[in-house]
Amino acid sequence: MGSMISNYIVIVSISGVLNALLALFAYYKKTDFAGTRAFILSSLTSAIYTFGFALELSGSTMPEISFWIKVEYLGMPFIAPSSLLMIMYFVGLERLIRKGLITALYAIPFISVLLVWTNDYHHLFYQSMYFREGAPTPLIDVVMGPWYIVQGSLTFGCMLAGMCLILWQWNRMKRVYRRQLFTIFIGQFLPALGAFLYLMDVTPYGMDPVPVIMSITSTLYIWAILSRGMLTAAPIARENLFESMRDGVLVTDLSDTLVDYNRAAADMLQDLDASAIGKPLAQLFLPAGQDAVDYVMNSDPLISEERELGWNMNGETRYYQIRSSPVQKYGGHQVGRMIMLIDVTERTLLQEKLLQLATVDSLTGIYNRMHFMELSRGLLNEAALSLAPVSIILLDIDFFKSINDRYGHHYGDMALQHIVTVCSSHLREGDIFGRYGGEEFVLCLPETSLKQAALLSESIRKDIERSSISAISGPIHVTASFGVVEARGKNLSLEDLLSEADHALYTSKRNGRNAVHVSSGSSITPFTPV
Q1: What is the pLDDT of residues 251-285, one digit of tens each?
Q2: Which of 193, 144, 184 is nearest to 164 (CA)?
Q3: What is d(CA 405, CA 462) in angstroms, rounded to the nearest whole number?
Q4: pTM
Q5: What would the DSSP string read from start to end of 333-381?
Q6: How are beta strands 516-519 and 524-526 bridged, if at all?
Q7: 105 near 81, Cβ under 8 Å?
Q8: DSSP state letter for 420
Q9: E-assigned strands of 10-160?
Q10: What letter does residue 427 receive in the DSSP assignment?
Q11: Distance CA 16, CA 357 (A)
Protein backbone atom coordinates (compact mmCIF):
# COMPACT_ATOMS: atom_id res chain seq x y z
CA MET A 1 0.00 0.00 0.00
CA GLY A 2 2.98 2.27 0.67
CA SER A 3 3.90 1.72 -2.96
CA MET A 4 0.51 3.12 -4.04
CA ILE A 5 1.06 6.27 -1.98
CA SER A 6 4.53 6.66 -3.45
CA ASN A 7 3.13 6.37 -6.96
CA TYR A 8 0.45 8.89 -6.05
CA ILE A 9 3.12 11.33 -4.83
CA VAL A 10 5.09 10.88 -8.07
CA ILE A 11 2.02 11.58 -10.23
CA VAL A 12 1.11 14.64 -8.16
CA SER A 13 4.68 15.91 -8.39
CA ILE A 14 4.61 15.48 -12.17
CA SER A 15 1.38 17.48 -12.20
CA GLY A 16 3.14 20.25 -10.30
CA VAL A 17 6.03 20.24 -12.78
CA LEU A 18 3.66 20.37 -15.74
CA ASN A 19 1.74 23.30 -14.27
CA ALA A 20 4.97 25.14 -13.54
CA LEU A 21 6.10 24.56 -17.13
CA LEU A 22 2.74 25.83 -18.37
CA ALA A 23 3.16 29.03 -16.37
CA LEU A 24 6.72 29.55 -17.69
CA PHE A 25 5.76 28.74 -21.27
CA ALA A 26 2.79 31.13 -21.22
CA TYR A 27 4.96 33.84 -19.62
CA TYR A 28 7.65 33.71 -22.31
CA LYS A 29 5.33 33.09 -25.26
CA LYS A 30 4.65 36.18 -27.36
CA THR A 31 0.90 36.43 -27.80
CA ASP A 32 -1.91 38.93 -28.17
CA PHE A 33 -4.26 36.90 -25.94
CA ALA A 34 -5.37 39.24 -23.15
CA GLY A 35 -6.14 36.31 -20.84
CA THR A 36 -2.53 35.10 -20.72
CA ARG A 37 -1.86 36.62 -17.28
CA ALA A 38 -4.92 34.89 -15.81
CA PHE A 39 -3.75 31.61 -17.37
CA ILE A 40 -0.26 32.07 -15.92
CA LEU A 41 -1.68 32.77 -12.46
CA SER A 42 -3.97 29.71 -12.71
CA SER A 43 -1.05 27.47 -13.73
CA LEU A 44 1.33 28.89 -11.12
CA THR A 45 -1.14 28.52 -8.26
CA SER A 46 -1.97 25.01 -9.48
CA ALA A 47 1.74 24.16 -9.27
CA ILE A 48 1.93 25.51 -5.69
CA TYR A 49 -1.17 23.52 -4.76
CA THR A 50 0.02 20.22 -6.25
CA PHE A 51 3.57 20.48 -4.89
CA GLY A 52 2.14 21.30 -1.46
CA PHE A 53 -0.17 18.27 -1.67
CA ALA A 54 2.72 15.98 -2.67
CA LEU A 55 4.68 17.17 0.37
CA GLU A 56 1.57 16.74 2.55
CA LEU A 57 1.39 13.08 1.50
CA SER A 58 5.06 12.62 2.36
CA GLY A 59 4.58 14.06 5.87
CA SER A 60 4.36 11.82 8.94
CA THR A 61 3.44 14.15 11.81
CA MET A 62 0.47 16.42 12.41
CA PRO A 63 2.54 19.67 12.54
CA GLU A 64 4.41 18.72 9.37
CA ILE A 65 1.27 17.81 7.44
CA SER A 66 -0.55 20.89 8.78
CA PHE A 67 2.24 23.12 7.48
CA TRP A 68 2.09 21.68 3.98
CA ILE A 69 -1.70 22.11 3.96
CA LYS A 70 -1.10 25.79 4.68
CA VAL A 71 1.33 25.88 1.73
CA GLU A 72 -1.35 24.31 -0.50
CA TYR A 73 -3.67 27.19 0.33
CA LEU A 74 -1.15 29.69 -0.99
CA GLY A 75 -2.26 28.40 -4.40
CA MET A 76 -5.51 26.45 -4.30
CA PRO A 77 -8.02 29.30 -3.57
CA PHE A 78 -6.77 31.32 -6.58
CA ILE A 79 -7.01 28.58 -9.24
CA ALA A 80 -10.76 28.74 -9.98
CA PRO A 81 -11.09 32.58 -10.07
CA SER A 82 -8.06 32.83 -12.38
CA SER A 83 -9.46 30.12 -14.66
CA LEU A 84 -12.80 31.93 -14.83
CA LEU A 85 -11.09 35.18 -15.86
CA MET A 86 -9.12 33.32 -18.53
CA ILE A 87 -12.33 31.83 -19.91
CA MET A 88 -14.02 35.23 -19.93
CA TYR A 89 -11.17 36.59 -22.06
CA PHE A 90 -11.33 33.52 -24.26
CA VAL A 91 -15.05 33.92 -25.03
CA GLY A 92 -14.74 37.65 -25.66
CA LEU A 93 -16.25 38.99 -22.42
CA GLU A 94 -13.24 41.10 -21.44
CA ARG A 95 -15.49 44.16 -21.34
CA LEU A 96 -17.01 42.72 -18.13
CA ILE A 97 -13.64 42.31 -16.44
CA ARG A 98 -13.32 45.40 -14.27
CA LYS A 99 -11.53 46.20 -11.04
CA GLY A 100 -14.71 45.49 -9.03
CA LEU A 101 -15.08 41.98 -10.45
CA ILE A 102 -11.40 41.15 -9.89
CA THR A 103 -11.62 42.40 -6.32
CA ALA A 104 -14.74 40.33 -5.67
CA LEU A 105 -13.18 37.16 -7.11
CA TYR A 106 -9.87 37.43 -5.23
CA ALA A 107 -11.01 38.89 -1.90
CA ILE A 108 -12.27 35.54 -0.56
CA PRO A 109 -9.10 33.62 -1.59
CA PHE A 110 -6.86 36.16 0.18
CA ILE A 111 -9.03 35.92 3.30
CA SER A 112 -8.90 32.12 3.05
CA VAL A 113 -5.09 32.16 2.99
CA LEU A 114 -5.04 34.40 6.06
CA LEU A 115 -7.55 32.23 7.93
CA VAL A 116 -5.79 28.97 7.06
CA TRP A 117 -2.45 30.24 8.36
CA THR A 118 -4.07 31.54 11.57
CA ASN A 119 -6.61 28.73 11.98
CA ASP A 120 -5.18 27.64 15.35
CA TYR A 121 -6.42 30.92 16.87
CA HIS A 122 -10.05 30.95 15.59
CA HIS A 123 -10.86 27.61 13.83
CA LEU A 124 -12.97 29.43 11.23
CA PHE A 125 -11.55 27.39 8.37
CA TYR A 126 -11.02 24.00 10.05
CA GLN A 127 -12.83 23.25 13.26
CA SER A 128 -10.48 20.34 13.85
CA MET A 129 -7.95 18.09 12.07
CA TYR A 130 -7.25 14.41 12.82
CA PHE A 131 -5.62 11.32 11.31
CA ARG A 132 -7.88 9.06 9.25
CA GLU A 133 -8.25 5.61 10.80
CA GLY A 134 -7.17 2.60 8.70
CA ALA A 135 -5.19 4.68 6.21
CA PRO A 136 -1.96 3.04 4.91
CA THR A 137 -0.06 6.27 5.58
CA PRO A 138 -0.73 9.31 7.76
CA LEU A 139 -3.68 11.06 6.08
CA ILE A 140 -5.54 14.02 7.53
CA ASP A 141 -9.31 14.37 7.82
CA VAL A 142 -10.86 17.73 8.73
CA VAL A 143 -14.06 19.08 10.19
CA MET A 144 -15.11 22.04 8.03
CA GLY A 145 -15.42 25.48 9.53
CA PRO A 146 -17.77 28.20 8.20
CA TRP A 147 -15.15 29.84 5.97
CA TYR A 148 -14.29 26.48 4.38
CA ILE A 149 -17.83 26.46 3.03
CA VAL A 150 -17.45 30.03 1.75
CA GLN A 151 -14.23 29.20 -0.06
CA GLY A 152 -15.65 25.96 -1.44
CA SER A 153 -18.74 27.77 -2.74
CA LEU A 154 -16.56 30.32 -4.57
CA THR A 155 -14.42 27.58 -6.10
CA PHE A 156 -17.38 25.54 -7.38
CA GLY A 157 -19.20 28.71 -8.47
CA CYS A 158 -16.25 29.88 -10.58
CA MET A 159 -15.80 26.46 -12.17
CA LEU A 160 -19.51 26.14 -12.92
CA ALA A 161 -19.63 29.66 -14.37
CA GLY A 162 -16.65 28.88 -16.59
CA MET A 163 -18.27 25.71 -17.93
CA CYS A 164 -21.54 27.54 -18.57
CA LEU A 165 -19.72 30.23 -20.57
CA ILE A 166 -18.08 27.55 -22.70
CA LEU A 167 -21.41 25.79 -23.36
CA TRP A 168 -23.02 29.16 -24.15
CA GLN A 169 -20.46 29.78 -26.89
CA TRP A 170 -20.27 26.23 -28.21
CA ASN A 171 -22.80 26.46 -31.06
CA ARG A 172 -21.56 29.90 -32.07
CA MET A 173 -18.07 28.61 -32.78
CA LYS A 174 -16.71 27.20 -36.02
CA ARG A 175 -15.48 23.63 -35.79
CA VAL A 176 -11.85 24.69 -36.05
CA TYR A 177 -12.06 26.42 -32.64
CA ARG A 178 -14.13 23.81 -30.79
CA ARG A 179 -11.16 21.63 -29.90
CA GLN A 180 -9.67 24.49 -27.91
CA LEU A 181 -13.03 25.12 -26.29
CA PHE A 182 -13.42 21.43 -25.46
CA THR A 183 -9.94 21.32 -23.90
CA ILE A 184 -10.76 24.23 -21.61
CA PHE A 185 -14.10 22.66 -20.70
CA ILE A 186 -12.37 19.39 -19.72
CA GLY A 187 -9.84 21.46 -17.76
CA GLN A 188 -12.75 22.78 -15.69
CA PHE A 189 -15.00 19.74 -15.56
CA LEU A 190 -12.55 17.06 -14.40
CA PRO A 191 -11.18 19.02 -11.40
CA ALA A 192 -14.74 19.99 -10.43
CA LEU A 193 -15.79 16.34 -10.59
CA GLY A 194 -12.77 15.29 -8.53
CA ALA A 195 -13.45 17.95 -5.90
CA PHE A 196 -17.08 16.87 -5.70
CA LEU A 197 -16.11 13.21 -5.18
CA TYR A 198 -13.61 14.27 -2.53
CA LEU A 199 -16.24 16.25 -0.61
CA MET A 200 -18.61 13.29 -0.86
CA ASP A 201 -15.85 11.14 0.73
CA VAL A 202 -15.98 8.49 -2.01
CA THR A 203 -12.29 8.66 -3.02
CA PRO A 204 -9.80 5.99 -1.86
CA TYR A 205 -8.85 6.69 1.76
CA GLY A 206 -10.38 10.13 1.45
CA MET A 207 -7.45 11.43 -0.63
CA ASP A 208 -7.95 14.53 -2.80
CA PRO A 209 -7.94 13.37 -6.48
CA VAL A 210 -7.76 16.92 -7.93
CA PRO A 211 -3.90 17.15 -8.01
CA VAL A 212 -3.74 13.88 -9.95
CA ILE A 213 -6.47 15.07 -12.31
CA MET A 214 -4.44 18.23 -12.90
CA SER A 215 -1.68 16.12 -14.45
CA ILE A 216 -4.24 15.18 -17.12
CA THR A 217 -5.62 18.69 -17.64
CA SER A 218 -2.17 20.30 -17.75
CA THR A 219 -1.11 17.76 -20.41
CA LEU A 220 -4.21 18.67 -22.43
CA TYR A 221 -3.36 22.34 -22.10
CA ILE A 222 0.19 21.75 -23.31
CA TRP A 223 -1.15 19.81 -26.31
CA ALA A 224 -3.67 22.55 -27.10
CA ILE A 225 -1.04 25.29 -26.88
CA LEU A 226 1.51 23.51 -29.05
CA SER A 227 -0.84 22.06 -31.68
CA ARG A 228 -3.90 24.33 -31.63
CA GLY A 229 -2.41 27.73 -30.79
CA MET A 230 -4.63 28.07 -27.72
CA LEU A 231 -2.76 31.10 -26.36
CA THR A 232 -2.20 32.76 -29.73
CA ALA A 233 -5.32 34.91 -29.37
CA ALA A 234 -8.83 34.71 -28.00
CA PRO A 235 -10.45 32.60 -30.75
CA ILE A 236 -14.01 33.43 -29.78
CA ALA A 237 -13.26 37.13 -29.49
CA ARG A 238 -11.50 36.90 -32.83
CA GLU A 239 -14.44 34.95 -34.24
CA ASN A 240 -16.89 37.57 -33.00
CA LEU A 241 -14.82 40.28 -34.69
CA PHE A 242 -14.51 38.15 -37.83
CA GLU A 243 -18.25 37.59 -38.01
CA SER A 244 -19.17 41.20 -37.18
CA MET A 245 -17.11 42.66 -40.03
CA ARG A 246 -19.19 44.39 -42.69
CA ASP A 247 -16.68 43.40 -45.36
CA GLY A 248 -16.57 39.87 -46.68
CA VAL A 249 -13.48 37.81 -45.80
CA LEU A 250 -12.39 34.58 -47.47
CA VAL A 251 -9.41 32.52 -46.32
CA THR A 252 -7.83 30.01 -48.71
CA ASP A 253 -4.90 27.63 -48.68
CA LEU A 254 -2.03 27.79 -51.19
CA SER A 255 -4.08 25.93 -53.80
CA ASP A 256 -6.84 28.56 -53.51
CA THR A 257 -9.22 26.16 -51.77
CA LEU A 258 -11.60 27.81 -49.32
CA VAL A 259 -10.84 27.09 -45.65
CA ASP A 260 -12.85 29.81 -43.89
CA TYR A 261 -15.23 32.72 -44.48
CA ASN A 262 -17.35 35.15 -42.51
CA ARG A 263 -21.06 35.97 -42.56
CA ALA A 264 -20.60 39.06 -44.76
CA ALA A 265 -18.90 36.94 -47.43
CA ALA A 266 -21.85 34.52 -47.38
CA ASP A 267 -24.13 37.48 -48.19
CA MET A 268 -21.91 38.48 -51.11
CA LEU A 269 -21.37 35.09 -52.76
CA GLN A 270 -24.23 32.96 -53.99
CA ASP A 271 -24.51 29.50 -52.39
CA LEU A 272 -21.66 30.14 -49.94
CA ASP A 273 -22.27 27.96 -46.89
CA ALA A 274 -20.48 25.36 -44.80
CA SER A 275 -20.51 22.91 -47.73
CA ALA A 276 -18.28 25.33 -49.68
CA ILE A 277 -15.33 24.65 -47.37
CA GLY A 278 -12.78 22.69 -49.39
CA LYS A 279 -14.04 23.87 -52.79
CA PRO A 280 -11.83 25.78 -55.29
CA LEU A 281 -12.27 29.54 -55.14
CA ALA A 282 -12.77 29.72 -58.91
CA GLN A 283 -15.82 27.47 -58.59
CA LEU A 284 -17.28 29.70 -55.88
CA PHE A 285 -16.62 32.84 -57.96
CA LEU A 286 -18.20 31.39 -61.11
CA PRO A 287 -21.73 32.83 -60.52
CA ALA A 288 -20.18 36.29 -60.03
CA GLY A 289 -19.17 36.51 -63.67
CA GLN A 290 -16.12 36.33 -65.90
CA ASP A 291 -14.24 39.19 -64.19
CA ALA A 292 -14.34 37.38 -60.86
CA VAL A 293 -13.20 34.07 -62.36
CA ASP A 294 -10.38 35.79 -64.27
CA TYR A 295 -9.25 37.39 -61.04
CA VAL A 296 -8.89 34.03 -59.29
CA MET A 297 -7.21 32.34 -62.25
CA ASN A 298 -4.69 35.12 -62.91
CA SER A 299 -3.89 36.52 -59.45
CA ASP A 300 -0.85 35.36 -57.48
CA PRO A 301 -1.60 34.18 -53.89
CA LEU A 302 1.95 35.13 -52.89
CA ILE A 303 1.47 38.81 -53.77
CA SER A 304 -0.66 41.42 -52.05
CA GLU A 305 -2.84 43.27 -54.52
CA GLU A 306 -5.97 45.38 -54.78
CA ARG A 307 -8.41 45.82 -57.63
CA GLU A 308 -12.07 46.57 -58.33
CA LEU A 309 -14.38 44.11 -60.06
CA GLY A 310 -17.87 44.15 -61.44
CA TRP A 311 -19.81 41.43 -59.61
CA ASN A 312 -23.01 39.69 -60.69
CA MET A 313 -25.27 39.26 -57.66
CA ASN A 314 -28.67 37.71 -58.34
CA GLY A 315 -28.85 39.38 -61.74
CA GLU A 316 -27.73 42.74 -60.38
CA THR A 317 -24.30 44.22 -61.00
CA ARG A 318 -22.41 45.12 -57.83
CA TYR A 319 -18.89 46.49 -57.53
CA TYR A 320 -16.42 44.96 -55.08
CA GLN A 321 -12.98 46.14 -54.15
CA ILE A 322 -10.85 43.00 -53.80
CA ARG A 323 -7.88 43.08 -51.41
CA SER A 324 -5.70 39.99 -51.35
CA SER A 325 -2.83 39.40 -48.92
CA PRO A 326 -0.74 36.32 -48.02
CA VAL A 327 -1.44 34.47 -44.76
CA GLN A 328 1.71 33.44 -42.91
CA LYS A 329 2.42 31.30 -39.90
CA TYR A 330 5.04 32.15 -37.33
CA GLY A 331 8.46 32.07 -38.96
CA GLY A 332 7.18 33.57 -42.21
CA HIS A 333 5.94 30.30 -43.72
CA GLN A 334 3.08 31.09 -46.08
CA VAL A 335 0.01 28.87 -45.79
CA GLY A 336 -2.55 30.64 -47.99
CA ARG A 337 -4.12 34.01 -48.55
CA MET A 338 -6.92 36.19 -47.23
CA ILE A 339 -9.26 37.92 -49.66
CA MET A 340 -11.36 40.83 -48.46
CA LEU A 341 -14.46 41.80 -50.44
CA ILE A 342 -15.49 45.42 -49.88
CA ASP A 343 -18.78 46.53 -51.40
CA VAL A 344 -18.04 49.81 -53.19
CA THR A 345 -21.15 49.79 -55.37
CA GLU A 346 -22.52 53.01 -53.95
CA ARG A 347 -19.20 54.78 -54.28
CA THR A 348 -18.60 53.46 -57.81
CA LEU A 349 -22.07 54.45 -59.01
CA LEU A 350 -21.60 57.89 -57.47
CA GLN A 351 -18.25 58.25 -59.23
CA GLU A 352 -19.84 57.17 -62.51
CA LYS A 353 -22.62 59.67 -61.98
CA LEU A 354 -20.16 62.47 -61.25
CA LEU A 355 -18.11 61.46 -64.28
CA GLN A 356 -21.25 61.48 -66.38
CA LEU A 357 -22.19 64.92 -65.12
CA ALA A 358 -18.70 66.13 -65.96
CA THR A 359 -18.55 64.58 -69.44
CA VAL A 360 -22.09 64.00 -70.73
CA ASP A 361 -24.83 66.42 -71.72
CA SER A 362 -27.74 65.68 -69.40
CA LEU A 363 -30.49 66.31 -71.97
CA THR A 364 -29.17 64.42 -74.98
CA GLY A 365 -26.87 61.82 -73.36
CA ILE A 366 -23.91 62.61 -75.66
CA TYR A 367 -20.61 64.25 -74.73
CA ASN A 368 -20.70 67.84 -73.58
CA ARG A 369 -18.52 70.43 -75.29
CA MET A 370 -15.63 70.25 -72.81
CA HIS A 371 -15.26 66.48 -72.97
CA PHE A 372 -15.70 66.43 -76.75
CA MET A 373 -12.83 68.88 -77.06
CA GLU A 374 -10.63 66.80 -74.76
CA LEU A 375 -11.25 63.55 -76.66
CA SER A 376 -10.93 65.13 -80.08
CA ARG A 377 -7.57 66.73 -79.28
CA GLY A 378 -6.25 63.31 -78.33
CA LEU A 379 -7.62 61.81 -81.53
CA LEU A 380 -6.05 64.58 -83.66
CA ASN A 381 -2.66 64.06 -81.98
CA GLU A 382 -2.79 60.33 -82.76
CA ALA A 383 -3.83 61.02 -86.35
CA ALA A 384 -0.95 63.47 -86.84
CA LEU A 385 1.54 60.72 -85.96
CA SER A 386 -0.08 58.15 -88.26
CA LEU A 387 -0.96 60.64 -91.02
CA ALA A 388 -4.52 59.26 -90.98
CA PRO A 389 -7.34 61.58 -92.07
CA VAL A 390 -9.69 63.11 -89.50
CA SER A 391 -12.82 65.08 -90.34
CA ILE A 392 -15.02 67.41 -88.33
CA ILE A 393 -18.77 67.87 -88.93
CA LEU A 394 -20.61 70.79 -87.36
CA LEU A 395 -24.41 70.82 -87.68
CA ASP A 396 -27.13 73.17 -86.49
CA ILE A 397 -30.91 72.72 -86.28
CA ASP A 398 -32.67 75.10 -88.65
CA PHE A 399 -35.15 77.58 -87.17
CA PHE A 400 -34.78 76.07 -83.71
CA LYS A 401 -36.01 79.25 -81.99
CA SER A 402 -39.25 79.02 -83.99
CA ILE A 403 -39.84 75.50 -82.67
CA ASN A 404 -39.46 76.71 -79.09
CA ASP A 405 -41.66 79.75 -79.68
CA ARG A 406 -44.41 77.90 -81.53
CA TYR A 407 -44.55 74.54 -79.76
CA GLY A 408 -42.82 75.20 -76.43
CA HIS A 409 -39.48 74.25 -74.92
CA HIS A 410 -40.59 70.67 -74.33
CA TYR A 411 -40.78 70.09 -78.07
CA GLY A 412 -37.55 72.00 -78.50
CA ASP A 413 -35.90 69.47 -76.21
CA MET A 414 -37.53 66.66 -78.19
CA ALA A 415 -36.06 68.13 -81.37
CA LEU A 416 -32.57 68.07 -79.87
CA GLN A 417 -33.02 64.46 -78.78
CA HIS A 418 -34.42 63.56 -82.20
CA ILE A 419 -31.31 64.92 -83.94
CA VAL A 420 -29.09 62.90 -81.59
CA THR A 421 -31.05 59.72 -82.33
CA VAL A 422 -30.75 60.17 -86.09
CA CYS A 423 -27.04 61.04 -85.97
CA SER A 424 -26.20 58.17 -83.61
CA SER A 425 -27.69 55.66 -86.04
CA HIS A 426 -24.99 56.63 -88.57
CA LEU A 427 -21.96 56.63 -86.28
CA ARG A 428 -19.24 54.01 -85.95
CA GLU A 429 -17.39 52.88 -82.86
CA GLY A 430 -14.65 55.40 -82.25
CA ASP A 431 -16.54 58.38 -83.66
CA ILE A 432 -16.85 61.26 -81.18
CA PHE A 433 -20.23 62.97 -80.94
CA GLY A 434 -20.96 65.97 -78.76
CA ARG A 435 -23.31 68.86 -78.14
CA TYR A 436 -21.37 71.95 -79.11
CA GLY A 437 -23.86 74.38 -77.62
CA GLY A 438 -27.57 75.20 -77.80
CA GLU A 439 -28.93 73.54 -80.96
CA GLU A 440 -25.45 72.94 -82.40
CA PHE A 441 -23.77 69.49 -82.56
CA VAL A 442 -20.30 68.34 -83.57
CA LEU A 443 -18.74 65.09 -84.75
CA CYS A 444 -15.07 64.13 -84.89
CA LEU A 445 -14.52 61.21 -87.28
CA PRO A 446 -11.20 59.30 -87.25
CA GLU A 447 -9.83 57.79 -90.48
CA THR A 448 -12.47 59.70 -92.47
CA SER A 449 -11.68 61.80 -95.53
CA LEU A 450 -13.46 65.04 -96.41
CA LYS A 451 -15.57 63.32 -99.07
CA GLN A 452 -16.54 60.48 -96.71
CA ALA A 453 -17.52 62.99 -94.04
CA ALA A 454 -19.56 64.96 -96.60
CA LEU A 455 -21.38 61.81 -97.71
CA LEU A 456 -22.13 60.97 -94.08
CA SER A 457 -23.42 64.50 -93.51
CA GLU A 458 -25.67 64.22 -96.55
CA SER A 459 -27.09 60.89 -95.30
CA ILE A 460 -27.80 62.36 -91.87
CA ARG A 461 -29.35 65.50 -93.44
CA LYS A 462 -31.73 63.40 -95.55
CA ASP A 463 -32.78 61.23 -92.60
CA ILE A 464 -33.52 64.31 -90.51
CA GLU A 465 -35.50 65.83 -93.35
CA ARG A 466 -37.56 62.68 -93.91
CA SER A 467 -38.36 62.14 -90.23
CA SER A 468 -40.56 64.16 -87.90
CA ILE A 469 -41.50 64.70 -84.25
CA SER A 470 -45.01 63.81 -83.13
CA ALA A 471 -46.96 66.61 -81.45
CA ILE A 472 -50.60 67.04 -80.45
CA SER A 473 -51.10 69.52 -83.28
CA GLY A 474 -49.46 67.20 -85.82
CA PRO A 475 -45.94 66.19 -86.94
CA ILE A 476 -43.11 68.69 -86.54
CA HIS A 477 -40.59 68.58 -89.39
CA VAL A 478 -37.01 69.49 -88.61
CA THR A 479 -34.04 70.15 -90.85
CA ALA A 480 -30.37 70.84 -90.17
CA SER A 481 -27.43 72.59 -91.84
CA PHE A 482 -23.89 71.14 -91.99
CA GLY A 483 -20.31 72.31 -92.27
CA VAL A 484 -17.52 69.81 -92.95
CA VAL A 485 -13.72 70.09 -92.73
CA GLU A 486 -10.79 67.67 -92.91
CA ALA A 487 -7.59 67.83 -90.86
CA ARG A 488 -5.29 65.80 -93.16
CA GLY A 489 -2.10 67.58 -94.16
CA LYS A 490 -2.99 70.67 -92.16
CA ASN A 491 -1.14 71.82 -89.12
CA LEU A 492 -4.30 73.19 -87.55
CA SER A 493 -5.51 73.07 -83.97
CA LEU A 494 -8.92 71.72 -83.07
CA GLU A 495 -10.12 75.27 -82.51
CA ASP A 496 -8.97 76.24 -86.03
CA LEU A 497 -10.76 73.26 -87.55
CA LEU A 498 -13.96 74.06 -85.67
CA SER A 499 -13.74 77.67 -86.84
CA GLU A 500 -13.35 76.49 -90.42
CA ALA A 501 -16.30 74.08 -90.04
CA ASP A 502 -18.33 76.89 -88.54
CA HIS A 503 -17.69 79.05 -91.63
CA ALA A 504 -18.92 76.18 -93.83
CA LEU A 505 -21.98 75.75 -91.59
CA TYR A 506 -22.69 79.49 -91.78
CA THR A 507 -22.51 79.24 -95.57
CA SER A 508 -25.13 76.45 -95.49
CA LYS A 509 -27.36 78.68 -93.35
CA ARG A 510 -26.89 81.66 -95.60
CA ASN A 511 -27.67 79.67 -98.72
CA GLY A 512 -31.08 78.41 -97.73
CA ARG A 513 -30.34 75.97 -94.87
CA ASN A 514 -30.90 72.18 -94.95
CA ALA A 515 -27.64 71.80 -96.87
CA VAL A 516 -24.07 70.53 -96.57
CA HIS A 517 -21.01 72.70 -97.31
CA VAL A 518 -17.41 71.56 -97.16
CA SER A 519 -14.32 73.66 -96.52
CA SER A 520 -11.03 72.86 -98.18
CA GLY A 521 -9.24 75.74 -96.48
CA SER A 522 -9.04 77.97 -99.53
CA SER A 523 -12.72 77.69 -100.48
CA ILE A 524 -16.12 76.61 -99.20
CA THR A 525 -18.31 74.72 -101.65
CA PRO A 526 -21.73 73.05 -101.48
CA PHE A 527 -21.61 69.30 -101.45
CA THR A 528 -23.51 67.53 -104.18
CA PRO A 529 -23.38 63.74 -104.09
CA VAL A 530 -22.52 62.17 -107.45
Answers
A1: 888 788 887 787 788 888 877 877 777 788 888 88
A2: 184
A3: 25
A4: 0.51
A5: -EEEEEEEEEE-HHHHHHHHHHHHHHHB-TTTSSB-HHHHHHHHHHHHH
A6: antiparallel
A7: yes
A8: H
A9: 126-131, 140-144
A10: P
A11: 75
